[in-house]
Amino acid sequence: MNKIVYNIIYAVLYTHALLPLRVLYILSDLLYIPVYYIVRYRRKVVKENLSNSFPEKSEKELLKLERNFYHHFCDYFVETIKLLHITDKEIQERITFKNIELVAELMKDGNSAIMYLGHYGNWEWVPSITLEFKEDTLLGQIYRPLKNEAFDKLFLKIRSRFGSVSIPKNNTLRSIIQYKRSGQKVLIGFMSDQTPSWNNIHYWTKFMNQDTAVFTGVERIAKQTGFSITYLDIIRVERGKYNCEVKLISANPKEEPEFAITEKYIREMEKTILRSPAYWLWTHKRWKYKKKDFVNE
User: Fold this and answer.
1) Mean per-residue pLDDT, 221-242
2) At residue 144, does pLDDT exceed 90?
3) Residue 198 lies in a domain
4) Which one of 154, 209, 217, 277 is least enclosed by Cβ atoms within 10 Å?
5) In angstroms, rounded to a whole number, what is the distance separating the alpha carbons of residues 235 and 267?
6) What pLDDT does 3 receive?
7) Count of domains forming the chain
8) Other residues' Cβ atoms within 10 Å of the Cβ of residue 127
């Protein structure tokens, strides 16, 4: 049954992927209406997240930001579909990577690296960064398998479009150590701007005006493996155009104080969001845990 469902979904989405983006953006504009006004997809969550993050903004300003987010959210959906049928040349014209030589420098002696990023802009287009590297470098991204097998298979196909490898979250450390032992040079992407599980909370910080529990696993892995750490700052220039800049977080993670790497990432992520807030994933229940509950437990 899952195979049948997958084939149907894939056929429908691939048919849409054949359309040029300018047509897909018309579909995005049409999609916005039911998503925002009829289904009202997670509008309560978005409204609360925006209000708490920007208490200085007026109700009118928050409403405009909310609507801009949902317009971009629909763009994200059709842009992701387009990955099922897009050429290397077209994706390279639509998403560019600046300071990529920093990663090459960090990896020049056979070392490997980690790249932090967040759910900003269109993160599904970021795996096209593989086109910027030589064949001796393996590009991978950590992902959380979806409960629906058909959609999980579909997203794995989309994310491997440019040759990167998707590593299940629960196999992260094991896979990275295997690559290290085999001598394989890797660049692993981590999206660490969502909420850790209650039992995996080890650090709190202020993020977007709120006490926030953050992932520290990337820092621990970097300290254990010695992998250098970078951050990918994404700027949405216009519809279907993104500029990305690689920034250094730490060349020598083992020498960093505890949680310093995590804090540097959070500050960079916050700067990215504050520059143009509408392009972050506000539908996520990012602040479902409260520090007072954690401290009093």
Assistant:
1) 96
2) no
3) yes
4) 209
5) 16
6) 84
7) 1
8) 23
Instruction: Specify if 288 maps to a domain.
Output: no
CA distance 157 to 161: 6
In the numeric block, the tokens 């006490």 are attached to: 211
Q: Which of 20, 10, 12, 18 is nearest to 240 (CA)?
A: 20
As a whole number of angstroms, the distance between CA 75 and CA 80 comes to 8
pLDDT digits (tens, 9 = 90+) for 160-178: 999 999 999 889 999 999 9
SS3 148: coil
Helix then strand count (H, E) for the chain reads 11, 9
In a domain, 289, yes or no: no
Average predicted confidence (pLDDT) for the chain: 94
Residue 171 to residues 174, 214, 219, 261: CA-CA distances in angstroms? 5, 20, 16, 22
Structure tokens at 44: 């309560």
Burial (0-12, 13-18, 19+ Cβ within 10 Å), 245: middle
Query: Element (H or E) spanning 168, and its range?
Result: strand 165-168
Amino acid type, 117: L
Single-letter amino acid code for the residue at 265: Y
Q: What is the DSSP string of 19-68?
A: S-HHHHHHHHHHHHHIIIIIS-TTHHHHHHHHHHH-TTS-HHHHHHHHHH
Q: How far apart are CA 265 and CA 166, in angstroms?
A: 22
Q: How far apart are CA 80 and CA 76, in angstroms?
A: 6
Q: Which pair of tokens denotes residue 167?
A: 């590593």
* Structure tokens given for 237: 């220039």
Q: Which distant-in-sequence residues (6+ apart) come within 8 Å of 33 by Cβ?
A: none
pLDDT at res. 231: 98
Enter the pTM of the model. 0.94
User: Quick check: is 139 in a domain?
Assistant: yes
The pLDDT score that the predictor gives to residue 67 is 98
Q: What is the mean pLDDT of residues 89-106?
A: 95
Which residue is associated with the tokens 């890797």? 186
Confidence of residue 296 (pLDDT cuts 50, 70, 90): low
